[in-house]
Amino acid sequence: MACPVSHTAAELNPAVLPLDWLLGTWESDEPGEGCFPTINPFRYIETLYFSHMGQPVINFMFNAFHAESKKPLHRECGFIRVQPGTNRVAFIIAQNSGLVEVEEGELTGQQLNLQTHSLARISFAKEPHVQQISRVFQLRPDGRLEQTVSMATDNQPLMQHLHITYRRSS
Fold this sequence. Notes:
This protein is mainly beta. The chain has a single domain (14-120, 128-168), classed as Lipocalin. Helix content is 0%, strand content 62%. Strands 1, 2, 3, 4, 5, 6, 7, 8, 9, 10 and 11 form an 11-stranded antiparallel sheet that branches.
C-alpha cells in the first residue's frame, strides 16, 4: 500500500508547523500491546505515515498488523488540523472498523492529548460499540514516538487499550 506522500515539494503550512515533529514514517520498534476486558490480550506492529501537501492540515495513515501472524488488524486514516493562534488540535479519523471520529485536544511541546469530540459508526458495527477514545502521542527524549490509546464501550469504562513506541524510519 502506498503511503500518502506529497507529489510536490510543498512548503509546510505555518498552521501545522507546531506538529512538524510528527512528519515522516514511524515504525514500531517492538510490538505494541493491546488489551481490553472483552478481548484476549494481543501484540501488534504498526506503521504510521504523517505527510503534508502545503495545506493547513497533516495527512495520516496508520496500519497495524498482528505481531505473530502478520494478519492485518486496524487501519486509520485522516487529517490533523490546528486551530490558528492556539494549541488546540483536531484529529479527523476514519477507521476500517466502520468508526469515524473527531478527537480534539491540546498540543503541549511535543505531546498531543486528544479525547473524543464526536463519533459516528456504520449501522452494522460490531458490538459493544466504542463510546469514547482518549489518545496521547509523545515524542520522547530518545527520539521515539509513544502512543497510548484508552477506550470506553457500551459496557466498559474508559481504560487503556493500546500502548506502543515507534522509531522514525523516514
